[in-house]
Specification:
The protein is of the alpha/beta class. The two termini are 13 Å apart. It has six helices and 13 strands.
Length: 201
């Protein structure tokens, strides 16, 4: 069973539809027992870091997430979900993230004619052997919508990068933790392959 964590964040239904397309029967839930019983757990999201952490804490989901990660269940963060997995964000000074992995979320620097938020298709440079990108070309194109980006502390956790005014850590993998700054559910067949690879881990 695949659980999608429900904390009132945007984009949950798009992820659900993509998983259904792949033959899954995902459950959108914030129920602790359901999440802990799941084979795979996804934390999607579109929105602001501070209010999202407030919702996770308010619903008691912060500890549930740490518990499910601690028991080794494959866990995937998408967009805001990736950002919440790390320690802090410039978007919400003083607000602690989940701290599942070391790193900070930074504002994309304003340069030349770059538009922020970053919205659109970018190619990735994928780390050889990255599990989420099995069967994909070396530089797959995926869809981004974000104003903040991940700067992971440990280079070995970075599964893919892209360039947009700076080097963006676009995907991470560490043991049972996986995350994408881009939206696989909006990235056509490439994104469906990424979600399929996660389901088949």
């Amino acid at each position: 069973m695949v659980s999608i964590i429900d904390y009132d964040a945007g984009n949950i239904r798009s992820v659900e539809k993509a998983l259904i397309h792949l033959g899954q029967e995902p459950v959108i839930t914030r129920d602790r027992k359901t999440i802990l019983a799941s084979d795979r757990v996804i934390l999607p999201g579109v929105g602001a870091f501070g209010s999202a952490m407030g919702k996770l804490n308010g619903y008691g989901l912060t500890e549930v997430i740490r518990e499910v990660v601690g028991k080794g269940t494959p866990f995937l963060g998408i967009c805001l979900g990736l950002q919440l997995m790390f320690e802090s964000s410039e978007e919400a000074p003083g607000v602690s993230g989940l701290g599942l992995l070391p790193g900070r979320i930074l504002k994309i620097p304003q340069k030349d004619d770059l538009k922020i938020p970053h919205m659109g298709w970018n190619s990735l440079e994928v780390t050889k052997g990255a599990s989420l990108f099995r069967g994909l070309p070396e530089h797959p194109y995926v869809y981004f919508v974000h104003s903040f980006y991940l700067n992971a502390d440990h280079e070995e956790d970075v599964a893919a990068v892209t360039e947009y005014g700076t080097t963006i850590h676009a995907s991470v993998e560490h043991e049972n933790l996986f995350a994408c700054q881009f939206h696989p559910e909006k990235s056509s067949q490439t994104g469906l392959t990424i979600l399929k690879n996660f389901i088949e881990l």
